[in-house]
Amino acid sequence: MDTRLKYKKHIARAASKGLEAAMELRRLRDLSPSSARQLFKSTVTTVVDYASNVWMHAFKDKAIRPINRVQRVGAQAIVGTFLTVATSVAEAEAYIVTAQSHF
Length: 103
Prior knowledge:
With 103 residues, this protein is an all-alpha fold.
């Protein structure tokens, strides 16, 4: 692990990798919501959660935005909602844990 990597940069890096995985999940069609949820949990959340025990104590409201974007894209991919749906609604419909309660 890079000793000069700051928490904010590390969170942004984890969110970027998670967003990339969530966008790939969105591209998959004809998946049932349960299959899409399982893929989300096994691919997207593992990428975002990698080394999260290091930076989760620095998890603030402003730093949560990139993680929320990953959650929203993943939830939209699971349920197949419109892009304008709120993150909390999409997470509830997709039956995934919110970022605030996860960290």
